[in-house]
Amino acid sequence: MAVQSNRMYNSFDTIVIGAGIQGSYTAYHLCQNNKTLLIDQFTLPHSRGSSHGQTRIIRKSYFKAYYTQMMTECYQLWKQLETEANVELFRQTGLLVLGKEGNPEFQTMKSTLVENKIPMESLTYEEFSRRFPLVNLPEEESAVLDKSAGILYADRALRTLQDLFQRLGGTICDGEEVVDIHPGSLVTVTTTAGTYRAKSLVITAGPWTNKLLNHLGLQLPLKTLRIVVCYWKEKVPGTYGIHKGFPCFIRISDSGQHHIYGLPSNEYPGLMKVCYHSGSDVDPDERDIIFQQPLEDVNLLSNFLSKEFPGLDPKPAIVEYCMYTVTPDQDFILDHHPEHRNIVIGAGFSGHGFKLAPVVGKILCELSTGKKPSYDLSPFKMLRFQSNLKSLL
Ligand SMILES: Cc1cc2nc3c(=O)[nH]c(=O)nc-3n(C[C@H](O)[C@H](O)[C@H](O)COP(=O)(O)OP(=O)(O)OC[C@H]3O[C@@H](n4cnc5c(N)ncnc54)[C@H](O)[C@@H]3O)c2cc1C
Q: Is the separation of the CB atoms in 215 and 78 below 8 Å?
């Protein structure tokens, strides 16, 4: 990444802190009409936050209908970005949603797909076994295929946005940690390398959000989780491969456990990515310090795969780390700072924010430029956590 550090012009319309997918998409929307600065603490690209890695699932199947509705525009904006940059960012694979008929989340995901007229198929146990002979679906479960779903090429998307942002006149200062923020009609942001001022500030700092909000007297009810990203070897290379038309999947779990999800083998030849949708609490600056092998998550995945994916070696071939920043209800926070309206916060993407970044970025851009937001933001307001918002003022 070419670092463009133009200290002579340290005044901007908007500063965005955090060049993960949310900050980069926000900056890209902003720079169409604004003089925008995007700051990141690490030299770009980096793998220390939540947006790195080659792939993410994109889908319209959600059990909260407002995400399904936002996804319509997300698909259009991802497509627009592909066209503008002339790169492939999306690959349609379909997504199997697996679960018990009696599970309310499974039922709602299914009905949301039907109500929103998303192309889908309901598969009985028999149909499923015929179509996917190398997955042992438990007899009490059934499957829905969200045909519009697929894979987003994550690292490539991030690079594309940051390149376009710079081509459109935006400034990136990477390798600069923000160490202080001073609110006011002009917000002052101090980094390890300089001081910048802007009419508005957007904070998209992922797992570091609360560390930054300390400077602004606010703490959000966010938890940072270390996610173990496991890749599993196909006994016969290509068995669950993207080239063989194998889809992504989400297994809706019962009994208080979290979901398991997987992507067809693609990014590392012969290896399928299958992960557990939760992890253990971690300080984001200590994500990669592993004192003890996180056996619990890996064992859970191993057991699942040995029963249901007999074509995979149930011992992970590669283990990597990533982070979720989760809110108590797993809904995002997209809102103004309660006391400083020209400071906008996008946080708590709860392990499902990548696909929604085009619309998240649009909303954060609208909030920071005083425009009416295009979506009903009531599910994303901080006030829903009034009892556990900490004001440090
Ligand atoms: C294993 C895994 C799988 C996932 N799968 C999916 C999926 O299939 N589909 C999906 O939609 N989503 C998925 N997600 C979620 C998605 O990746 C995240 O919601 C998204 O990447 C969050 O992006 P972000 O920009 O908020 O955070 P980040 O990417 O963490 O970006 C925050 C940035 O802020 C910077 N920063 C922080 N503090 C400072 C500071 N003081 N000064 C300067 N810079 C600072 C950081 O360096 C970082 O670059 C997954 C996440 C993980 C971990």
A: no
Q: What is the pTM of this model?
A: 0.96
| Summary count for the chain: helices (H), strands (E) | 8, 22
45 CA → ligand 1 middle, Å: 12
For residue 322, indicate whether it is catalytic.
yes
| Residue among 382, 352, 391 at smallest CA distance from 51 | 352
How confident is the model over 128-173, as pLDDT tens digits?
999 999 999 999 899 999 999 999 999 999 999 999 999 999 999 9
Distance between Cα 352 and ligand 1 center (Å)? 10
Question: Longest Cα pair distance anywhere in the chain, in angstroms?
Answer: 67
Looking at the domain that runs over 95-147+223-326, which CATH code has it been given? Answer: 3.30.9.10
The class (CATH top level) of 11-51+155-219+329-391 is alpha beta
Residue 99: both structure tokens together: 């679960």
**Whole-angstrom distance, CA of residue 119 vs CA of residue 356:** 19
Catalytically annotated residue among 273, 337, 340, 352: 273
Looking at residue 22, what DSSP letter applies? H
